[in-house]
User: Fold this.
Amino acid sequence: MEAVYNILRGCSFIGDFLAYQYTIDFNYSPYLNFSENSFVKAGIGAIRGIKNVLYAMGIVLKMRFTLCRIIFMNFNTNTDF
Assistant:
């Protein structure tokens, strides 16, 4: 799924958000069949919200990818949320 996103993102007229939305849409077609959990691209609102929560908790993390990976890995292993 990430490869599809990267191809779409390579188009100069498609930004991060639209490339991800198109990737999700294509995945619902009969031509692609990726797991919906195989690739996630956090949008600006999600990133801003996560930063606000972590800042409120006293945690400062500068790398968005690392933050999203930590959350994704914990979400899959912990069901006590």
